[in-house]
Amino acid sequence: MATNTQVRLAARPSGFPDASCFRIEEAPVPEPKDGEVLVQNHFLSLDPYMRGRMNEARSYAPPVAIGDVMVGGTAGEVVASKSSSFAVGDKVVGAFGWQEYGVSDGRGLTKVDGELPLSVYLGAAGMPGVTAYVGLYDIGEPKRGETVVVSAAAGAVGSVVGQLAKLRGCRAVGIAGGRMKCDYVVGELGFDACVDYRSPSFADDLRAATPDGVDVSFENVGGPVMNAVLARLNAFGRVPLCGLVSQYNATEPYALENVAALLWKRVKLQGFIVSDHMDRWPRALADLSTWVAEGKIRYRETVATGIRSAPDAFFGMLRGANLGKQIVKLI
Q: Is the pTM of the predicted complex or chain greater than 0.85?
């Protein structure tokens, strides 16, 4: 009899998480009731926001309860249906979390046409892509000829941000960790420049890469990286604040040094959560899917195999070991 392997939250981390935070269990494959479908997940998305959901602290979404399946986006196939809206064989994107199967009444489940590889609907043509699209276009409001800087530029969101900036006629400058990632960002993704934040000359390199200053800073990292970019902002600069991954495992908060400049430079800094912008998803997904299919947006995936590999792949992503989107291939 088939079983449903699940990864559950076993303990809340203090600092960087480890294997003791998770528990792997075998459960029966659930049976769909009337109006429901059973989905076999083919791919699991791993994303930085999951680290915050492991904490008990107040946030925009409730924490994962101890003992619950870890949250996460999934892409898979309907294998049993008692719903008039879905047929066996439909490819769907949902949020079944870290497990091999899930049951849904259809809410939060989206059919995809399959014109792109299924995993891409968890990356460039999925939530990370929409995050880049909404954050840059709606909050950053880039104008032709402006300079857009994006941190974590080799990651799932950042890699799309820079390419969207180029589609708007902007100068795109990435920040990434290590020469290999910077070469990828410039050579394959088409950014104008990429700066290695690990380099001792990072501040000087950033200055050289942004000779006309920075008009839009798409922030994924926070900490010293954000501090360095704030110092380069032009008057009336815009900062879509998407993530602070450098701080997710920190036990002491990092204090920015350039806060006063936000005032006298009249900077717009706006934190955002992409799920607050559901009205923009249809247009964003349509554009992103088209641009990926046309090769105007390129992407990479770092792939772990099997649901049991999810914790280690998650730790690696938090350390920046992934290039592009981190996923887990389940079948």
A: yes
